[in-house]
Specification:
It is a single chain. Helix content is about 55%, strand content about 5%. It has about 170 residues and is mainly alpha-helical. The chain has two domains: about 100 residues, no CATH class; about 60 residues, no CATH class. The two termini are about 15 Å apart.
Length: about 170
């Protein structure tokens, strides 16, 4: 019985479809989510556990993120996301003029980026992401789950059928 190989093959197929869809929908920015997807198969032929695992926040690509506690480095995460995505932020110049007694800690560009990242982080913490507020989507991994299950079912059924026929 080659169930282990069937599961490996089909989970790799599912992984490929999800990675392809992340890219096709423009959902991926850095590729970290796609790169985090791994196939794990454990156990023997009698007890097999098969998993397709991704980074902890993987489901947010379809569901978004609900309001609530955010990581302590959320502003840093959002700042990097803005840079990776190539989003331009409105420049907010200092009103106070630099002097002998005061020098700005950040450039206008850094300050503006920090302010934008802080505002986005606050909105996510208090309201959730835009994707979450709009009800999410179902086009990254959802469309492939039923197809994956059907493919596995068909292949395993065929495998058992062939084994039974050989034994007759």
């Amino acid at each position: 019985m080659r169930i282990r190989e069937i599961l490996q093959e089909e989970l790799e197929w599912l992984k490929g479809k999800i990675v392809e869809q992340l890219r096709a929908t423009g959902t991926t920015v850095t590729g970290q989510t796609a790169d985090s997807i791994e196939v794990y198969i454990e156990g023997n032929e009698k007890e097999i556990e098969a998993y397709l695992l991704g980074r902890p926040a993987f489901s947010t690509v379809e569901k978004g993120r609900a309001a609530g506690g955010v990581p302590s480095n959320m502003v840093d995460i959002i700042r990097q996301w803005i840079l990776d995505k190539g989003i331009s932020v409105r420049q907010v110049p200092y009103i106070r003029q630099p002097s002998e007694n005061w020098q700005p800690k950040y450039t206008v560009e850094e300050r503006s980026l920090n302010m934008a990242a802080g505002a986005i982080s606050h909105t996510i913490a208090t309201k959730g992401t835009k994707l979450y507020r709009e009800g999410g989507r179902a086009d990254i991994y959802t469309p492939f789950i039923d197809e994956f299950l059907k493919r596995v079912e068909d292949k395993i059924y065929l495998e058992y059928k062939l084994e039974i026929l050989e034994r007759l």
